[in-house]
Design brief:
Pfam families: DNA_photolyase, FAD_binding_7. It comes from Vibrio panuliri. Its cofactor is FAD; (6R)-5,10-methylene-5,6,7,8-tetrahydrofolate. The radius of gyration is 22 Å and the shape is globular. It is an alpha/beta fold. The protein folds into three domains: 5-134, HUPs (Rossmann fold), CATH 3.40.50; 204-290, Serine Threonine Protein Phosphatase 5, Tetratricopeptide repeat, CATH 1.25.40.80; 311-421, DNA Cyclobutane Dipyrimidine Photolyase, subunit A, domain 3 (Orthogonal Bundle). The termini are far apart. The protein contains 18 helices and five strands. The chain has a five-stranded parallel beta sheet, with helices on both faces. Helix 5 links the parallel strand 4 and strand 5 (128-132). Helix 10 packs antiparallel against helix 11 and helix 11 (268-290) packs across helix 16. It binds flavin-adenine dinucleotide (FAD).
Length: 438
């Protein structure tokens, strides 16, 4: 009988716990190649972010996550094959030269990865491609509507799904089929270096440690009152970086949240953590439904905003050098750490679109290049939302001065992140090109 050779294509599911697909692969194939393709800095991203590579924090967090996955796979008799090749090229090489019979991968929300699967299916109909939702609370069949009928607003979505039962996470598969030789060109798995400056350390064990620590404290019981603060590990959960690369699954988090509620009681705040995870869930399905439209200027509503591109203003925004101190501080924090609070993201996005008049895609692309918790649906979906071309027809515009009074009345956050080093004027010339004196 022909030997069954599987490829497990890891993407944003860098874990062995609650990995139902890996369990299935372990039961079905004789040999397994665990593959990871390094993310590429696409031309689209270069064009809109004006960067040439991912930010240091984002790269570091990802490298840590990959290195840790490789270590855990070794304990299961496996290792991670890491390549710089495009996923399509890598998978075609493995199918053609290494007799791969099965491919296992996420049921992607992202358009590019789903396209890879569709092309593979076309060119290699005899290869069995097994997909499963690895990043959501619910799977497609559990949704109470067809994906094409995804509600147009988050509130309608939430009302339909929030009472549904969520499957329990599954235990890790500790014995994986043996690896096999392959003909792929690979790169070294980065070494797991952790520095004392790292606020966030990538990897499955760090994810579990962080979430366990969060629920061992009483933060969850006050979450609703504190989540809008701009800085500080205890104010919001900070689950997003690990969720984004899949070092932990949302089901594992819900499991731990329910245990916390059993021990300490549930309240508005513990519910609100679930509520926010439902926002994430919404944007995952939103990305799956809208595909390419996620990146269109006119968004999913087909309504082009009255914005354009001003290179000088964009540069000021990126470098934390605008006339808005809070925006500057948030942008400096993002550049230095790869993270920004939800309130900060709303403020800087609103500023880019509504104060600086810039096409929202430039901001979204810059975020993609820097955020350690970059997630295609959550990022592009939220940007569309603020620009008024997505899950709400009403653009979200924040009054920058008022927000500063509410969230940083003493100016401590601005001080900490150097937000006062900005410009006095947004532009160096006026509307008829005369220089403006500072
Ligand atoms: C312009 C903009 C871009 C964003 N880009 C991303 C992104 O690339 N990746 C990302 O994970 N989140 C993104 N968000 C959502 C949100 O800002 C972050 O999820 C949150 O700040 C992460 O911090 P936390 O884990 O402490 O969140 P908490 O407040 O503790 O929330 C708990 C979890 O709920 C989810 N969540 C909370 N708010 C949202 C939201 N508005 N949309 C989707 N999920 C949410 C996250 O998974 C988060 O970890 C973006 C928001 C805006 C306004």
């Amino acid at each position: 009988m022909r030997k069954k050779v599987g490829v497990f294509w890891f993407t944003n599911d860098l874990r062995v716990e609650d990995n139902q697909l890996l369990k299935r692969a372990a039961q079905e194939v004789d040999q397994l190649i665990c593959l990871y393709c390094m993310p590429r800095f696409s031309e689209y991203l270069q064009h809109f972010s004006l960067e040439t590579r991912f930010g240091e924090s984002r790269q570091r967090f990802l490298h840590q996550s990959i290195a840790e996955l490789d270590e855990i796979l070794h304990q299961c008799g496996q290792h991670l094959v890491v390549t710089d090749e495009h996923p399509f090229t890598a998978l075609v090489t493995l199918i053609k030269s290494d007799d791969v019979t099965h491919i296992y991968c996420d049921d992607f929300a992202s358009y590019d990865e789903q396209l890879v699967v569709e092309h593979l299916q076309c060119y290699f109909p005899l290869v069995e491609i097994v997909q499963r939702e690895q990043r959501t609370l619910l799977c497609r069949q559990q949704l109470p509507f067809h994906l094409e009928d995804l509600p147009a607003s988050f509130s309608k979505f939430r009302k339909q799904v929030e009472k549904l039962a969520i499957d329990l996470p599954v235990d890790a598969e500790l014995a994986l089929p043996p690896p096999c030789s392959h003909s792929l060109s690979t790169v070294e798995v980065p070494s797991l270096s952790v520095s004392s400056h790292d606020q966030f350390v990538g990897g499955e064990r760090f994810a579990l440690a962080h979430v366990s620590c969060y629920f061992a404290s009483s933060f969850a019981s006050h979450y609703k009152q504190t989540r809008n603060e701009l800085d500080g590990m205890e104010f919001s959960t900070k689950f997003s970086p690990w969720l984004a690369v899949g070092c932990i699954s949302p089901k594992q988090i819900i499991g731990m949240l329910r245990q916390y509620e059993q021990r300490n009681g549930s309240n508005d705040s513990t519910y609100w953590i679930y509520f926010e995870l439902l926002w994430r869930e919404y944007f995952q399905w939103y990305a799956a439904k809208y595909g390419k439209q996620l990146f269109h200027f006119a968004g999913i509503l087909g309504k082009a905003p009255l914005t354009t591109f001003y290179p000088q203003r964009f540069k000021q925004w990126v470098n934390g050098n605008t006339v808005y101190p809070l925006v500057n501080a948030c942008m400096n924090q993002l550049r230095e750490t790869g993270y920004m609070s939800n309130r900060g993201r709303q403020l800087v996005a609103s500023c880019l679109v509504h104060e600086l008049g810039i096409d929202w895609r430039y901001g979204a692309a810059y975020f993609e290049s820097q955020l350690i918790d970059y997630d295609v649906g959550s990022n592009w979906g939220n940007w569309q939302y603020i620009a008024g071309v997505g899950a709400s027809k009403t653009p979200r515009r924040f009054d920058q001065a008022k927000q500063m009074q509410i969230y940083d009345p003493q100016g401590e956050f601005v001080q900490r992140w150097g937000g006062n080093r900005g410009k006095i004027n947004t532009d160096s010339v006026d509307m008829v090109d005369w220089p403006i004196r500072a």
